[in-house]
Design goal:
alpha+beta, Hypothetical protein af1432, Beta Polymerase, domain 2, 4-stranded mixed sheet, globular, RelA_SpoT, GTP pyrophosphokinase rsh, kinase, transferase, EC 2.7.6.5
Length: about 700
């Protein structure tokens, strides 16, 4: 564990004037409060707060934030109290610790309605002091780094919460290094097969072409040196999750994905950024549509950089970001740059955004959401979306998420403009309202008195603000009709379970669903935003009609086959239900099902006529899909028997077992396990991997077993 002296040395490296006594006192107090507590790994619990504090020193944060990290679990998990922390460390630190405690108690992975309500609380905490979120993000990062010690079901829960909430939030705050690591750590838990496949392909690519990063880095340095531009060049391969997301978005295989390498050029001045851009574009051909200038149009979190993609060495596409040192500091620290210290002084970075300004820009549009669903939609759109910049006829800039339409632009100007919109002109030309706007376009909205939002606008609008305003207008117009229809639908649903939809029952259900009253509940049911079954479930979960999933047809497990075609699972990849698949036709043998990432598919790239677009049949599949698992286990008494028992407890059958290697201290073996689907397989592998005598476990795929 990092000692108090080592931690102080970390802080002193960027802040020689740090309050050493305060940090040492907090360290001692935290250690005393957590004494006797252990983590899932068996380590003393206090190692966690210390590691969180150490993470924050990497961002040069102030003493109050470091102390908060050391104490962030004391109020929640020990006998400490708010008043005691306030007495010993002051009101500022006590408020920060209390804020982190309240965030920790939010169940952000719960139902949509509850999640939206807690999002509101999260943003309220942010509006008071953003350092609360910085500590919470560092806390989550360390927990994700050590997630393997948690129970399997807890790992999945925390990973999903991280992917849905904390990673996008870190990105929105400009802390892209943290977002990437959080995403990749969550990806390791949620889709280990996909991640392992990408890593294997990276290794294969490097064997075939060598490590191209140093070569391209040197090429860029040479071009800058020839132009007498001083700059630092950094290059790296992108994270597995980033690559997987690109593959999913573009529907491309790894072999066809080109821009898997990223490079940064860090210059001394803004002028040098644009000079460097010119040098690179003269040397390599730029890729159309892949240029963004966030220096002239910075993001709301202060991020500034020029992004471009060029066809580099051997025609490989590479992404290049160009920025100054100060811009790079903000890009690394994001909004946290506001509290950064260097040489004992608060860093005066002209590009660092005032946190209060940033939070205001995030929350002002959320306040317009009149219910939890609208608010949740606002938040998720804001955190996940990139931006485009359009101009008003007067030359003012309007920021919108990528994919926004003139309708979104109209509502961004004013709700009244959006409601009365009848058309739009983009760069002087009349365009349909569903047109996707692009960077730099000038937009003019045409309005008319008496115009009202149309139901079809919901499918056109992209931003939460626009969709919320449209829904609200439509609800008000049709409110009475919706309530009447909702009352009839709930009456039928309640009678179906032998109950009566009384006013009291509806009021109680509305409260359970976090709605204002029974009228709002009936309105939502009538407008199909809430189902009558959900209302019944809120009051009588044990009576709700939730039939089990229908069993899938064992004779026709996949959909999309030609009439009468025989189907088999390819032995090379052993795809199971729940995984994306493709069919390959073999003359005289029928159709073989391959996993979409199977390496064997490479040999069929030039034979598109043999490919079939297929998918697994919906429903519950029988546990008849054999998957080979490669295990390395300790050669101890009872280990193999225990592994077999673990597999049986997961209701999976062992259909074959083969020993590959026997050593005095370990065995290597292949075990064929029959499973229902990918979820069942994950449960089996998680149960096995949790055993202390299992040294290694992976899904075994053998290309030599091709059909």
């Amino acid at each position: 564990m990092i000692s108090d002296s080592d931690l102080i040395a970390m802080v002193r490296a960027y802040n020689p004037n740090t309050n050493e006594a305060l940090i040492r006192d907090a360290y001692a107090y935290g250690a005393k409060m957590h004494e006797g507590q252990t983590r899932h790994s068996g380590e003393p619990y206090f190692t966690h707060p210390v590691e969180v504090a150490a993470l924050l020193t990497e961002r040069w944060l102030d003493d109050a934030t470091i102390v908060t990290a050391l104490l962030h679990d004391t109020i929640e998990d020990t006998g400490s109290t708010f008043s005691e922390v306030e007495r010993r460390f002051g009101s500022e630190i006590a408020e920060l610790v209390d804020g982190v405690t309240k965030l920790t108690n939010l169940e952000l992975n719960s139902s949509e309605t509850k999640q939206a309500e807690n999002f509101r609380k999260l943003f309220m905490a942010m509006s008071k002091d953003l350092r609360v979120i910085l500590v919470k993000l560092a806390d989550r990062l360390h927990n994700m780094r050590t997630i393997k010690h948690m129970r399997p079901e807890k790992q999945v829960q925390k990973a999903r919460e991280t992917m849905d909430i904390y990673a996008p939030l870190a990105g929105r705050m400009g802390m892209h290094w943290m977002r990437e690591e959080l995403e990749d750590l969550a990806f390791r838990v949620l889709n280990p097969d996909a991640r392992a496949s990408i890593i294997r392909r990276f290794i294969t690519l490097q064997k075939e072409t060598g490590d191209v990063v140093p070569k391209i880095t040197e090429d860029i340095r040479t071009e800058l040196a020839n132009a007498r531009i001083e700059g630092k060049v950094l290059g790296r391969a992108k994270k597995p999750y980033s690559i997987w997301r690109k593959m999913e978005e573009k529907k491309q295989s790894f072999s066809r994905l080109s821009d898997i390498y990223g490079f940064r050029v860090i210059t001394n001045s803004e002028d040098d950024c644009y000079r460097a851009l010119g040098v690179l574009h003269r040397r390599w051909r730029s890729v159309p549509g892949r240029f963004k200038d966030y220096i002239s149009q910075p993001k709301t979190n202060g991020y500034r950089s020029i992004h471009t993609t060029v066809s580099g060495r051997d025609g490989k596409r590479v992404e290049i970001q160009i920025r100054t040192r100060q811009m790079h500091d903000v890009a690394e620290a994001g909004v946290a740059a506001h509290w950064a210290y260097r040489d004992g002084e608060r860093v005066e970075n002209p590009f660092a955004v005032d946190p209060s300004t940033w939070v205001s820009s995030m929350t002002e549009r959320f306040e317009q959401a009149d219910d939890h669903d609208d608010f949740l939609e606002h938040v998720k759109l804001e955190m996940y979306s990139d931006q485009v910049f359009c101009f008003t006829p007067k030359g003012e800039v309007v920021k919108l998420p990528r994919g926004a339409t003139p309708l979104d632009y109209a509502y961004a100007i004013h709700t009244r403009i959006g409601h009365s919109c009848v058309g739009a002109k983009v760069d002087g030309l009349r365009v349909p309202l569903w047109t996707r706007l692009r960077n730099g376009q000038s937009v003019e909205i045409i309005t008319a008195e008496g115009q009202k939002p149309q139901p079809t606008w919901i499918d056109i609008a992209v931003t939460g603000r626009a969709r919320s305003a449209i829904r609200k207008s439509l609800r008000e117009e049709h409110r009475d009709r919706y309530i009447k229809l909702g009352r009839e639908l709930t009456r039928v649903a309640f009678e179906h379970v032998g109950k009566k939809a009384s006013d009291k029952a509806l009021d109680t259900a509305a409260k359970e669903l976090s709605l204002t009253d029974a009228s709002q509940l009936l309105e939502y049911v009538g407008s199909t935003e809430l189902s009558a079954r959900e209302v019944v479930t809120a009051l009588y979960p044990e009576l709700a009609d939730t039939p089990d999933m229908e069993p899938a047809d064992a004779q026709r497990p996949v959909v999309g086959l030609p009439e009468g075609a025989e189907v088999k699972r390819a032995a090379c990849c052993q795809a199971v239900p729940g995984e994306r698949i493709v069919g390959i036709k073999y003359k005289g043998e029928g159709v073989f099902v391959h996993a979409i990432a199977c390496d064997a598919l490479v040999e069929f790239e030039d034979e598109p006529e043999r490919w079939l677009d297929i998918r697994w049949h919906t429903g519950r599949h029988a546990a008849t899909n054999a998957v080979s698992l490669a295990l390395t286990i300790g050669n101890s008494f009872g280990v193999l028997g225990r592994i077999c028992t673990l597999i049986g407890e997961q209701k999976a059958n062992i259909s074959d077992m083969h020993f590959i290697d026997r050593k005095p201290d370990y065995f290597q073996l292949l075990v064929d396990v029959d499973v229902r689907d990918a979820e069942h397989l994950h449960s089996v592998m998680t149960a096995i991997e949790a055993d202390s005598d299992v040294a290694a476990l992976e899904r075994h795929r053998d290309l030599s077993r091709k059909p």
